[in-house]
Structure formats: C-alpha cells, structure tokens
Amino acid sequence: MKKNNWLSNIKYDFPSGLVVYLVALPLCLGVALASTGRSDLLFSGIIAGVVGGIVVGALSGSSLGVAGPAAGLVVIVLNALETLGSFEAFLLAVVLAGILQVIAGFLKAGIVGYYFPSSVIKGMLAAIGITLILKEIPHAFGYDADFMGDEAFDQKDGQNTFTELYNSVKYSSTGAIVISAVSLGILILFDRPFMKKIQLFRFVPGALFVVVTGVLLNLSFPGFMPAWTLSGDHLVQLPVASDVSEFFGFFKTPDFSAFTKVEVYTVAVTLAIVASLETLLSVEATDKLDPFKRDTPTNRELIAQGFGNIASGLIGGLPVTQVIVRSSANIDSGGRTKMSTIVHGTILLLSAVFIPRFLNFIPLASLAAILLVVGYKLSKFSLYKGMYRLGREQFVPFIVTIIAILSTDLLKGIAVGMVVAIYFILRKNYKHSYHYIKEQHRDGEIITLILSEEVTFLNKGSISATLENLPEGSTVVIDGSKSLNIDYDVLEIIQDFKRHSAPLRNIIVETKGITDVEVIGGH
C-alpha cells in the first residue's frame, strides 16, 4: 500500500468514509440528546462529528482513528451543564479543555498511552463489541425510547442493559424486525468472498445498500402492511432548518464572561483528562486492529484532539475524542488512510446542510444492523480462543476487563482490568527476579543467585525471602554482573544480609557486580 498517496487509496477510503458517516450520524445525534437532554441542541452533536472528521482528521497522525462526540462523556456533560447553568458557559469549558490537551501534547503526556497492557485493550475491544450488540438489539426490534443506548450498564433513565432488552421484546415493532433481518442478510451477503470479485461491490459498501433498502421497505409498508410502517423515534431525526438564518442559528458561541467562574476551570480539567484517556485507549485499540500495523504518534494525537475541542467549542459543538466504534467501522469497511475520516466528516457536513429531510427517512433498524455486525467482528469467538491459549496471565485480565466494562462503564472497567493486569505483572516480576542454582562441592553446598537484567523494588520481597531461607553454614554467591540496573532497595537488602544476618548464621556471602551501599538505619 502507498501510505502517503491519498489519491491511490481513495477507492478504499471513500466507501469506508461513507460507512463511517452512516454509523456516525445517529450516534452524533444520540450523544447530543443524551448529553444535553434538549432537542434544540441536537445539532451540537453534528458539529462535533464534522469537527472530529475534518479538523482532527487533518491534524491527527492516526491513519484509521475517527473522532467525534463520545458516549463516555455523556454524564460529565450533563453534570457540567447543571453546574454551569448554560450551554454557552459549557462551550467555554470545552475550549479550555482543548487548550489543556494541546499543552499536554507538547509536554509529551501522550506516552501514557503506551502503558496499557495488551490483554486489557483486547478486553476493551471485546467488551465494546458485546456492548454494541446488547445496546443495538432494542433498535433492531424497534424499541427506540433511548435514541442510541448508553455504553454504561446503568442508564440515566433508570433502565439498564437487560431491562432494555426485555423492553425491546415487549414493545417490538414488526416493521423494524423485518428491516433489521433484511439488513443483516445484505451485510452477511456482502461479506462473502464472491461478492468481493464483483467490481461494483468493491466500491459501493454494503452499508449503503442496507440504508437504501431500509428506506424503500419502510416507504412500501403503507401500501400492503400499514401497521409495519416506522415513523417518529424509529427514524433518524436530524434538525431541519426552514431557511439560512435558522440554520446558522444552530451554531452557538462560548460565553466568555464565564471566565470568572471557578466551575468552568474544574469542568475543563475534567473534560481534558477523561477525553484524553478515552482517546489514548482508542488509539491503542485502533492500532491493534490496523491491518497494516501502523503506530499512531500519541502526543500528536493529543494536540489534534485539543485543536478539535477548541474548534468544536467555538462554534457550538460537544467535546470530541477518538472513538473506537467509528474507528472499528472504518477498519472493517476497508479504510486505508485518514482521508476516510475526513470524507466522513465532509459528508456529514454536506448532508446536514443540503439533505436533512431525506436523511430523516432512514430507519434506525437499518443502522442498528450495521452496528450489530461491527460488534460481532470486535468480539469474535476466535479472539477468546486466542487469548485463552496465551495462558491465564493474559486471559484473566482480558475476561475481567470485559465483565467490568459490561457491568459498569468503559473507564471503570478499564481501571479494574488494569488492576488485575498489574497484579499478574507484579506476580511474574516477584517470581522471576533471579535464577537459583544449588551445587554440591567438596567444601560444602554452594548456592548461586543470578539476578535478572532489571531488578527493582518490586523484587524486594522475593529476594529477601530467599535470603532468609538459606540454610545455615552454606556459601552463597549473589551475581549481579548481568544486571543492567539494581535498585537501591535491593542493594540495601543484600548489604544488610551480607554484613549482619549472614555472619550470625555462619553463611559465607560472595557478591559479583554488586555495588556496596550504605544501609540507612542499619544496625
């Protein structure tokens, strides 16, 4: 692949950008409705999607990551609006959060992204896949009380993942089920190898056929089965302006007089931290899914996201982060470069300006089918088999992360997964801090401890326990000649043992490559 020639890859990037647009449109509106609770602010989600696609896409070093409004920020935005009292004051906080992200990027804070264990990232991807399936089933059944569902298990409307599944069956719509079933059939058909050989279907994505088919089916229902017809909450609901002045009225500007409010800065710091963490997690996950295995420069990504939030806040948009669902859809649809992200943002802008009425014919059931397939591909059974084969040190944090995310939310689940992964890292470090050799010589038993390359304070426990359990009258050789680094904590234990404990037990200690240190507080 020619990585730097966007013209040579546009045949892949344009169809992929179109698919991402179809996925992003209802999510942008859903996040806006969930975040603000106000129908008059739905366009703030579209603004964030456009900025995430065009501004962040142009500045980012990520080839396949897609930025936009994120469900993970919904609760923060809701609380911030209540605290600050106005949407315009909140926009100022978004701008300030963006400035903080830009500063963090220049200070190289993006390195944090490299410290998430692979097992946790893969668990996050699998959990998001399952979450997508569970949250989109209600829309596939035609139960659309909650526009897009929430990533968290417990939702702000008092429902949770399982009660929503129950409601989806109880209040199902036959028309939505028919459209979902047909849509899934089309997507499965498009995934078959023989379809890739047909020139037309290489360029036109299956998701476009799904949307067109869904619209045509719903328009045909009144003629032969009126009860199946979908309307209102079952369809995309993009704000429609009656004239140019009303359209520009959708855009808002920050209330700069709110600079004096301490609460604005508190919200800005919170947004900057959470949005940056979600972005870095998504970057790590997207890079793992990238078929070309490219690495995203994380500091540049923070800077790009920062400028995106500055732009979004200045014109009335919600805060943006890189988001794994849209990024996964991009990868799954064959995107090659960041041009697919820019294409999605451009189409989102043009459609909001020129064809909002036509977009409002799209059934949510069609879009639910697209997301169900994305969810399945993120959480395939082969992923679980592969992680199981790697052993429990990888499998346990992987499974715990999935369960924690499904039962709480993304950030809490990641935190739980990190704790478990770190436990296994510490446990392994404890066990493998040295190599133990016992030999019988003419003069008696000689025990050799060959220290590993890196010996840190984490190894204090195992080394101290080994020294305490050495048999009386033995000879021990502690060999640190192959170690690149031995922490003072460990050197202190060795010196204390050599000078005080060993003579009392008639143990002869010989050291190699180990620096003598002063034992602070020793006796």
UniProtKB/TrEMBL annotation:
Q: What is its main location?
A: membrane
Q: Give the keywords, sorted.
A: Membrane, Transmembrane, Transmembrane helix
- Domain SLC26A/SulP transporter positions: 11-401
**UniProt cross-references to InterPro entries, sorted A to Z:** SLC26A/SulP_dom, SLC26A/SulP_fam
Q: Which residues cross the membrane?
A: 12-35, 41-59, 87-107, 114-134, 171-190, 202-221, 264-283, 358-378, 398-426
In terms of Pfam families, this protein maps to:
Sulfate_transp
Would I find Membrane among this entry's keywords? yes
Membrane topology type, per the record? Multi-pass membrane protein
Subcellular location as annotated: Membrane
Q: What is this protein called?
A: MFS superfamily sulfate permease-like transporter
